[in-house]
Amino acid sequence: MTFLTRRAGAGLAAVAAWAGLLGGLSGCTGDGGSPIEIQLPGRPRSPDEAIRITPDDNAKGVPAEGPLTVTVPEGRLERVVVTKVEDAQEEKVPGTIAVDGLSWSPDPEAGRLALAAKYTVDAVALDGHDRRQARHTTFTTYVPEERFIGYFKPENRSTVGTGMIISFGFNRSIERRADVERAITVTSVPPVEVSGHWFGDERLDFRPKQYWKPGTEVTVKMRLRDVEGAPGSYGIQDKTIRFTVGRSQISTVDAAAHTMEVRRDGDLVSTVPITAGAPKNTTYNGKMVVMELFDVTRMNGQTVGFGGEYDIPDVPHAMRLTRSGTFLHGNYWASPDTFGSTNVSHGCIGLRDDKGGGSDTPAGWFFDRSLVGDVVEVVNSQDKTVAPDNGLGGWNMSWTAWVAGSAAG
């Protein structure tokens, strides 16, 4: 009986000692202020404790630089999937789980997070006792107040002439031109050297040294999303544009001879009588590129700096050559004997046509055989050469001067 009493006393002493040990540990600190955490084997951590994710769940305005991390205090991470969800499309963020299994971080090559985007984080981990835990969180990144976009030519999947110049017009002034230019890449098959050229701070054009070869396949990648074009102003576009270069058609307008020679792949196809700008309103010299084609359009002199000299509501077979208003178009109001003999226009190039647009007239014939990107070169006019930024006039600039206008080097 006495023996049993001593055993019971010893047991109570052991329990008291264990309690004292726990009490002493709970009062210790690991960093001079924070209590050391004791995890009893029997109590599993909550998902928030077991898998710690930064940014916090439902965080908003997260910087593009992050931080973005997933960690566990013990055990190991089994799987981490970070996804950008945008416009019903999903894009995974590549990342790596550390060798010790305690953390995940994005791959350095992944770059910054996208701005104005929603992300989801799904993580699965095993704790120190092989108990599986899963956690799902979401966050959204910072939405800039100012965004910029680039309006571009030519259209995606179009077939264009050999003189096509790729042109971007931006809705905001671009101060960091090199960054924006590097975010746009132009490649082709067969490959040729292509360079950008800035006209002011809102326009960037690309062209090769010489006209594109027929059959060339061109790819333009716009990776402008989140590129800072000016302080606080970020791009929003991430697009790929592809177009094909068709046959070569280069037409030479001789303003003094009142003719236009049309050449296909170097061969003369036709010589067409024309009328160019009258002595007081001469036509620009130089290489111009067809920018737009209209079956019929209105031409009002007041919109291009003239007074009320003309307002024609139904000009047929009109092809725009400059931003300032130079067109090559059908003309039904002039006498037929004007074409090939006299220059009477306000600067445009006129071809004989019927009211409403004839299919068998010189204007109808030429219109039906033209593409955006075809070249029209005017010679022997009593005017200056068209400015390189007036329409797609970049072919009037030497290659050396063109490359010098690149901000990317």
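Above is the first protein from milestone M3; the second protein from the same milestone is given next.
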Amino acid sequence: MNVKSLLAQSVAASLLLASSSAFAAKVTKDQVVEHYADIAHAVFSDSLTTAKVLEDKIEAFLASPSESSLADVKQAWIDSRVPYQQSEVFRFGNAIVDDWEGQLNAWPLDEGLIDYVSADYQYELGNEGAIANIVANTSLTIGASTVDTSKITPELIADLNEIGGSEANVASGYHAIEFLLWGQDLNGTNAGAGERAYTDFVVGSGCTNGNCDRRGEFLRAAADLLIQDLAWMEKQWSSEEKGNYREELLNGSADNGLRKMLFGMGSLSLGELAGERMKVALEANSTEDEHDCFSDNTHNSHYYNEQGIYNVYTGLYKREDGTLLSGPSIHDLVSQKDQQAAQEIQKQFDLTRAQVGQLVVSAEKNNQHFDQLIAAGNAQGNAIVNETILSLVAQTASIERAAGIVGVDSLNPDTADHEF
């Protein structure tokens, strides 16, 4: 993401919000919840669209592997993360999303389950699947389970998730694809991402590290499963489907819908983004706990998580085709009750978005990526991450304030057992 465009987009969205709120007709809670469903559908639809582009790039790459075609696939993967990361705000409060998302975005993972790894590879103690290497083996025995892996299919990799009872055994989703494209990041807290050679996918005499045909099969199957999963979720939010989750949500009370919205925002802001995705990695100085750890795309991943929270609050979502989806929002409800509080809450959102944006600035302008910022001894980098955590905590307090104003009491966003 270009730093200037990031900041310009932020300012433009805030100005639009201010101008639209000033002239908006009185909105109802029901309208706000319905527009929330519209945003969810748009986000998952865009996630599906970008995943299909990724699949097309994978097919072109496997047909003719080269440095340039691998670079094209990597860029398509990064592009696909933009809408998907904005979808995570719908996880918390909507069990249908939270129960589903593990197959698409589980992390951290023991990548040795999937493919070859370095000799000094660090993995979860006691995990029998941590070095199983599906790509290299046509049969696996993990604990009491023996699995025929001779044909790598979407169904197989779905079944291998959490095999042996370990959550670190992740065979599917964005991060499995990320590992197959980049390989391990062996740079620790120094500069640089994974450097897998395109020749790892060359079938025949040019193959490096063996099993290039099966590695390609795995990549293809993982992309296929990703699209199947996203297509299912897109339909759950579509206004054109009957008996889906959208219908269930809108048939419920508007107050319950608002609680889901605010709980999702607060829980992603506090327990997940500030806690699991930043605090854990910072306190342990652990690159293994970095979100997009193979590609060093974590700064964008965090930024678009924050953008997703902002989307739900403001009722604004910039689609992949550049169009802006806008409608009745929580911000409108707060403004109708207390203009001053609305301005103060908006200011906190702007401060937090700017602070999370500093992770992007650090990576793209200063070449200091998240895995470098969390390094032991990098006082300045640690301070940037810690300030971002504190700003997310303050944002969560503003979300709770907004909840109280619109009549949602005792929000209690998920802390993921972290103390702030």
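Note on the second protein: The radius of gyration is 22 Å.
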